[in-house]
Fold this sequence. Notes:
Blueprint: H1 16-24, H2 34-37, H3 55-67, H4 71-83, H5 87-99, H6 107-121, H7 131-147, H8 158-170, H9 175-187, H10 195-207, H11 211-223, H12 231-244, H13 251-263, H14 266-288
Helix pairs in contact: 3-4, 4-5, 5-6, 6-7, 7-8, 8-9, 9-10, 10-11, 11-12, 11-13, 12-13, 12-14
Amino acid sequence: MRTSRDGSGRAGRGLLLTAVLLGSGLLGPGLPGPAVALDATARIPVPPAGAYRNAREAVRTGVRDYNAGDKEGAARALEYAAGQGHALALWKLGRMYAEGDGVPHDDLKAFEFFSKIADENADDGPDSTNATVVASAFTALGRYFLDGIKGSYVQPNVERAYDMFNYAATYFGDPNAQYNLARLYLDGTGVTQDPRQAARWFNLAAEKGHPAAQALLGQLLMNGQGVPVQRARGLAWLTLARDAAEGPKDQWIVGLQEQALAATSERDRADAQAQVDGFYRRSATARAR
């Protein structure tokens, strides 16, 4: 079991889908390569030749159709662009299949779309046009590797999950990846349990406005887990997380904030509110730049 990985290495082209197929014994002599697996045409009709002038036009059409509620039309247009390797189209289709949004839910198909993004854009820098999409694809792949995909060649592989999260968190600074990496350290999943490392990664994601990271960082600060006890700061992060909470899925954040509120003094609460106000001021200033 590892204690850490520095994450400074670059992920090479063709790393992801090829590696998992080889590891599963599904890619061998006479068998189709990864590109063949990327085939969403079975349930989405391929648009007729000449329907779009180029991939960019197809993406614009797909986004327009999606926003208008025509998700089947959106999928057709995005499929055309994805077939030409357009990263945003691949990402959007991956999300649609992962969520069953306008297309049949299909985690394996989503995995293959995200894999294609990672394979073809792994050398993109954090300032590149596709950086956000590429980072999101690596993070999505990490989540799939954590649990695997039932009935498919994608088996649970915590080490590969760590690699995906670590790459997106370290190289791209992606807050979702930073949060997922922190959870691995907090729970001791695939790495030596290390609350201090967890707090570090939660803090990076929290500063970028990630509500779940803010809540768990707040809890660590309240309990002194991996960090010194700092009740005011812990309550501040939990308050920010509660402000961003959305519906029943975030009820756990509300519960943690209420517990913290009851466990702090009046002075801590006033100090926490001042920190919350300061966070919002800094965020507003950053947006105005």
